[in-house]
């Protein structure tokens, strides 16, 4: 009864079932995510939402997407993925919010993104040293039932074969333009020796 009076008066506003926010408080995306995770309880933010929280330049705040290990009926506008389990190593925290680890986020995105955008995300993560090829390999082995693993394994094989990550977003875009125009794949980061000095 006391709760209902506060809701009726506008002092509390219902965000999700059993989750309320103070009326008049500034609203932003992270506040929405906090309320959402309180409602989810055992779920974690994932996919596009996790990518935005981790700082990937291709993803902007705004989308609500999560992964759960139990049945839940998501509210309108929210995307929820269900899995049987999430390994503890695939969990992380960003600003106090539960999210999939950066490597697990890449694995999840592999089945939803266009190949060029997925490659760009992997390049950015490796370039900024957010993850490593070994960590991605280990994440793949922990998630053998996930969709998109063929694409991830193919990319890891390519990267280990010498076609390392681009070192800037501009370099990545130029490479994609050359490829789309039908030009041969350029050699990148090639080491050459000039005047007894090793250069690239």
Overall description:
- This protein has helices at residues 2-9, 29-40, 47-54, 102-109, 115-127, 133-142, 149-160, 169-180, and strands spanning 12-16, 19-22, 44-45, 64-68, 78-82, 91-94, 97-100, 192-194, 197-199.
- It is an alpha+beta fold and 200 residues long.
- A three-stranded mixed β-sheet has the order 3-4-5. Strands 1-2 form a two-stranded antiparallel ribbon. A two-stranded antiparallel sheet has the order 6-7.
- Strand 1 (12-16) and strand 2 form a beta hairpin.
- Helix 3 (47-54) packs across helix 4 (102-109) and helix 6 (133-142) runs antiparallel to helix 7.
- The longest helix has 13 residues, at 115-127.
What's the layout of helices and strands?
Layout lengths: L1 H8 L2 E5 L2 E4 L6 H12 L3 E2 L1 H8 L9 E5 L9 E5 L8 E4 L2 E4 L1 H8 L5 H13 L5 H10 L6 H12 L8 H12 L11 E3 L2 E3 L1
Parallel strand pairs: 4-5
Antiparallel strand pairs: 1-2, 3-4, 6-7, 8-9
Helix pairs in contact: 3-4, 4-6, 6-7
Helix content: 40-55%
Give the percentage of residues in beta strands.
15-25%
Structural class: alpha+beta
Distance linking N and C termini: 72 Å
How many strands? 9
Question: Notable features of this structure?
Answer:
single chain; three-stranded mixed β-sheet; 200 residues; alpha+beta; 9 strands
Short description:
The chain has 200 residues and is α+β, with helices and mostly antiparallel strands.
């Amino acid at each position: 009864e006391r709760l209902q009076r506060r809701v009726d008066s506008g002092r509390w506003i219902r965000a999700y079932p059993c989750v309320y926010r103070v009326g008049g408080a500034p609203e932003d995306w992270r506040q929405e995510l906090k309320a959402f995770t309180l409602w989810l309880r055992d779920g974690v933010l994932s996919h596009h939402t996790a990518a935005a929280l981790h700082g990937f330049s291709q993803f902007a705040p705004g989308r609500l997407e999560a992964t759960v290990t139990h049945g839940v009926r998501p509210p309108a506008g929210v995307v929820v993925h269900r899995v049987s389990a999430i390994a503890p190593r695939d969990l992380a925290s960003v600003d106090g919010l539960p999210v999939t680890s950066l490597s697990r986020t890449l694995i999840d995105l592999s089945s939803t993104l266009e190949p060029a955008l997925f490659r760009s995300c992997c390049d950015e993560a490796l370039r900024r040293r957010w993850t490593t090829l070994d960590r991605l390999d280990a994440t793949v082995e922990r998630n053998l039932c996930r969709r998109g693993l063929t694409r991830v394994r193919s990319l890891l094989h390519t990267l280990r074969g010498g076609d390392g990550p681009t070192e800037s977003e501009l370099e990545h875009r130029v490479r994609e333009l050359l490829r789309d125009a039908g030009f041969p794949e350029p050699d990148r980061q090639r080491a050459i020796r000039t005047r007894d000095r090793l250069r690239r």
